[in-house]
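Q: Two folds, back to back.
A: First:
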Amino acid sequence: MDTNGRVINLAQVEQDERSPGERVRVKLRRGDVEIEVESPVDRVSEVVARIMEGLSTAPQREAPSAPVARAVGATCRGLVESLWRDGWFSEPRGLGEVAAELSRRGYNYDATAISHALTDLVRAGVLSRTGTPRTYRYVQKRPPD
């Protein structure tokens, strides 16, 4: 298929070199759909045309969209703060656990960004930090209001 969506009959070239009784296998791909067809040489053009017609009339699936950031908590710090508001930091949590929870909720942030957000919340008196560098555990210093 060319860039305009028209069928390019690549099998036609092979038809000239094959006998009419032989079968050819053709792979077609359109978006995330791949179809493999085996057909007699003399019917390849017809079969490919019918498949392409069927694909063009089939409803297209929409790609899954990325989670939409809510107005509150759209930044990394805001999202970590929302974990605190939800009581998630009632138990001590490590950086990896925080990253995993944000990812589970549909937000993938770099560990450095999460670490900065956690440090900011420690400085703001929202969270408390225990342990040593690279093994810090974060827990709520005060419950959410």
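A: Second:
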Amino acid sequence: MKNIGGLDFIKTKMQSTPSPKKDSAYYFTKKSVFGNSSISNVDKVFIGDSISDYGEFQEYFPGEVVLNRGIRNDWTGGVLNRIQEVVDRNPKEAYLMIGVNDLRYKTEGEVYKRNVEKIVDSFRGKDTKLAIQSILPVNNGLFGNEVTNDQVKRFNVILQQIANDKGIEYIDLYTSFIDKNGQLDKQFTVDGLHLNGKGYKVWVDRLHSK
């Protein structure tokens, strides 16, 4: 019983904190930097975890004010904890991609759904055009089996349903990145989870073409 209690305690702690303990300094540093920025007249903002964090989105949209609000290892609870900073800037467009770390941290589907709904509802009454982007596939041969694409697809169904219910755009990026075996195509990644430069170009091209 002692071991089970210990596992339950760890799971509870992982779901009640903004980001994993090992990366909390990075989370709170980035949150502080974001909060103290005075930038205004924002055209686009990208919200998410490391997959957003690592993208140089401002270089793909010259002439626009583009913010990157990705934080590595973040999950829906962490985004919810910092979303007001984005909302208050009233950006013209906001692109949310979050969920692969929720899968890694074993977030329950109902908790995930509730958190995403709260993130979306934060923009209520604002002029921002919010879009929910699908979670990307993983390549289990490179990344391992911590997350499966069946899990990703299950969470993407939740995202699509939320978008439908809330009357906002859902952008299916998942199908743009899978190979014939249903895995994240190796040409778009080094580690099986994150995108390389070619992958980011596919992502941005998809946004340009929508």
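Q: And?
A: DSSP finds eleven helices and five strands in the chain.
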